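R.M. (postdoc): so does anyone remember the format we settled on? I'll just put the structure tokens first.
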């Protein structure tokens, strides 16, 4: 799938470039496309320098949380909920702890670091699966929740905005939190309907109802604030939450006599390896998208969508953020490259860049997750995983656009 997507970028760029040359008389288009190749290769390395530090830092803190027992405590606290939502998984099974750790990594915005943990969780669930080729209900729920990308602290998004010169990298904290909550809720409800999960059982309601009420009260509070106050609050809460999580990990670990420095180094080494392995993918996708933009193909497509949106009488400012949304189901690296390119071409704090950052933080690479997670355990029949995951992703995109109009429109 990624092979076809990547090759398609270059083929479409070639056709668009020929059209500009033969029909538009623009003989410089191919020079611009070649320049874009080298410019994006250089940008990939610049992004990776900061990405090395970010992944190294947060995987170090995540290892401290794991050694301090925070992850296991979360698994025990969530055990009654998992027992209702995944009745085929026994209490105390290793899959529960691995899923919790995966959700924790996703919650911190460490999507690349979450993947290896998620693969371990999927293998553990496969041990309980009576079929070797058909996905179990537990595997489908785990995949859809993973694909819905519940992100509480989108660290990687903050990092990309910082690298592109944003004065307040955490400005999109609240929009992402609201959009990712919508995506996850739709994903959970859609799976629950298909699998007939007891969402209205007292135990499930005891977990979900307080969260829903707290989110509703929080949104009611936000509705009373002006746009400027919303943006300011988002930045303050983003920074406060980020540092609060770090402090929590360190204090709990220190109270439990965990050698915090040693455990941080252990996790940081893993983060360094994860970041190093990402560079080829980032170079490949950024260069392909740079050529696509330089050829004019992306502008042609966006102009067509913009015309249709304007004809419908809808504000079309969000259209420039759609490249990120369109490629996100297929490739995280392509969406990441689209986000960076949008920030560079439109401005890091432009409306389009803010919408693209919110989309990036609130949706996931559905087809990539499906291929990697199910492929790792030999699952060939995904059953209802794909429609439920795509529905969650679509809800996340719509919520991201709507929330950004609320906050920044």
């Amino acid at each position: 799938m990624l092979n076809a997507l990547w090759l398609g970028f270059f083929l479409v760029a070639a056709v668009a470039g020929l059209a500009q040359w033969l029909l538009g008389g623009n003989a410089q288009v191919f020079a611009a496309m070649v320049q874009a190749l080298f410019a994006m290769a250089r940008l990939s390395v610049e992004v990776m320098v900061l990405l090395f530090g970010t992944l190294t830092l947060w995987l170090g803190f995540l290892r401290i949380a794991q050694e301090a027992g925070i992850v296991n405590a979360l698994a025990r606290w969530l055990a009654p909920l998992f027992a209702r939502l995944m009745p085929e998984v026994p209490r105390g099974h290793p899959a529960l702890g691995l899923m919790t750790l995966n959700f924790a990594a996703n919650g911190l915005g460490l999507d690349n670091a979450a993947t290896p943990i998620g693969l371990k969780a999927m293998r553990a669930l496969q041990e309980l699966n009576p079929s070797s080729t058909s996905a179990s209900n537990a595997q489908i729920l785990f995949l859809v929740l993973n694909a819905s990308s519940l992100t509480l602290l989108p660290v990687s998004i903050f990092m990309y905005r910082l690298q592109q010169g944003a004065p307040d990298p955490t400005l999109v904290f609240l929009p992402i939190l609201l959009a990712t909550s919508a995506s996850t809720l739709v994903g959970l409800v859609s799976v629950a309907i298909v699998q007939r999960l007891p969402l209205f059982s007292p135990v499930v309601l005891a977990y979900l109802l307080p969260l829903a009420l707290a989110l509703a009260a929080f949104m009611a509070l936000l509705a009373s604030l002006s746009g400027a106050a919303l943006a300011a609050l988002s930045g303050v809460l983003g920074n406060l939450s980020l540092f609060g999580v770090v402090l929590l990990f360190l204090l709990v670990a220190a109270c439990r006599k965990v050698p915090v420095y040693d455990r941080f180094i252990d996790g940081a080494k893993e983060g360094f390896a994860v970041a190093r392995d990402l560079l080829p993918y980032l170079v490949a996708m950024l260069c392909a998208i740079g050529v696509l933009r330089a050829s004019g193909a992306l502008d042609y497509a966006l102009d067509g969508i913009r015309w249709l949106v304007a004809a419908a009488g809808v504000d079309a400012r969000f259209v420039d953020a759609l490249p990120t949304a369109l490629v996100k189901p297929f490739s995280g690296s392509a969406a990441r490259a689209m986000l960076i390119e949008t920030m560079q071409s439109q401005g890091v704090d432009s409306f389009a860049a803010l919408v693209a950052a919110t989309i990036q933080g609130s949706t996931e690479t559905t087809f990539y997750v499906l291929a990697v997670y199910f492929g790792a355990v030999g699952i060939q029949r995904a059953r209802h995983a794909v429609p439920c995951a795509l529905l969650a992703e679509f809800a996340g995109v719509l919520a991201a656009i709507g929330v950004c109009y609320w906050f920044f429109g």
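R.M.: ...and that's the designed sequence above, right after the tokens. Also worth knowing: DSSP finds 17 helices and no strands in the chain. The two ends are 36 Å apart (CA to CA).
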